[in-house]
Design brief:
Elements lengths: L10 E12 L2 E12 L3 E5 L6 H8 L6 E6 L2 E2 L13 E3 L12 H7 L8 H5 L3 H21 L16 H13 L5 E5 L7 H16 L3 E5 L3 H7 L2 E6 L2 E6 L1 H5 L2 H11 L1
Parallel strand pairs: 3-8, 3-9, 6-7, 7-8
Antiparallel strand pairs: 1-2, 1-4, 4-5, 9-10
Helix pairs in contact: 5-6
The chain binds adenosine-5'-diphosphate and magnesium ion.
The site of magnesium ion has 2 residues, from helix 1.
Length: 262
């Protein structure tokens, strides 16, 4: 295999021999990869290739085989809901908002993990508590802006803002109060033109800021533009891993995937 099968730096997240079965069906088998800080790993493959199963397997959302290491620590047995506090965060394919909360309140709701524990908040004087709340609001607004959700949308309901901005909001909410590893499943779904360009720029910026990202994506233009390395799945197996240039000229990929899609 080429140099493309290892990240340039120390891996932040490493999965070994991931496997997922649904009854008799083998959805994913012996898939291994790793991702470093400031690196974006793309996962592509035709429908049913096992991309979402792989995504769910990493974050313990499905019963799976294999091992997961986060910053050198074996987190295989850490349950899904305890991974975010360790810096591994994920977005969901559908826009998962609190529909009756404003955009700002949605952001505040996912930032609590860094805005002070509920215990310390409960024993603060009202003055300290309100100061802390103001700091949280400020941090939430800054995060939204950083992720391309402008202040004109902060007081609106998530469903009342443009679709492209809803997708950016999904990424912001997944990131929450901070992350070392961010996983996105088809962030570009339903996007076109200008919105796709905004998403591309956002992903490149997050990468420059040192975030490790795993992005499942259908849009070849998007993934080829943002990924450092790409894992190609087909029928539950990894058929290629390498830089965008490497996988684009890989015979197995051309035959099994791009050829079929063309
Ligand atoms: N919950 C499930 N129960 C049974 N089969 C499933 C389930 N989820 C996915 N599959 C099957 O597993 C395979 C991989 O699916 P998936 O991981 O969703 O692929 P992708 O995201 O690449 O389209 C497919 O054959 C799919 O039909
Ligand atoms: Mg999928």
């Amino acid at each position: 295999m080429t140099a493309g099968n290892r990240p340039a730096g120390e891996p932040v997240l490493e999965v070994k021999d991931l496997g997922v079965r649904y009854g008799e069906l083998v959805a994913l088998e012996a898939v291994s990869w790793s991702v470093a800080a400031g690196e974006l790993l793309g996962i592509i493959g035709p429908n049913g290739a096992g991309k979402s199963s792989c995504y769910d397997a990493v974050t313990a959302m499905v019963k799976r085989q294999g091992r997961v290491h986060l910053r050198g620590e074996d987190v295989t047995d850490v349950p899904a809901h305890r991974l975010p506090e360790r810096g591994l965060k994920r977005a969901f394919q559908q826009n998962a908002f609190f529909h009756d909360l404003s955009v700002l309140d949605n952001m505040l709701a996912v930032m609590h993990d860094t805005a002070g524990s509920s215990l310390s908040t409960s024993i603060l004087t009202p003055w300290r508590a309100s100061q802390r709340r103001a700091a949280s609001v400020e941090q939430a607004r800054m995060t939204l802006e950083r992720f391309g959700v402008g202040s004109e949308y902060h007081e609106r309901l998530p469903t009342a803002i443009p679709y492209g901005t809803q997708r950016m909001l999904s990424v912001a909410l997944a990131f929450g109060g901070g992350a070392q590893v961010l996983m996105l499943d088809e962030p570009g779904a339903g996007l076109g033109g200008e919105d796709m360009e905004r998403l591309t720029q956002l992903l490149l910026t997050l990468k420059r800021d040192g975030l490790a990202m795993i992005v499942i994506e259908h849009h070849m233009d998007l993934i080829m533009a943002v990924a450092d390395r790409i894992v190609v799945l087909d029928q539950g197996r990894c058929i290629a891993i390498g830089t965008p240039a490497e996988v684009q000229r890989d015979r197995a990929v051309l035959e099994a995937y791009l050829g079929r899609a063309a």
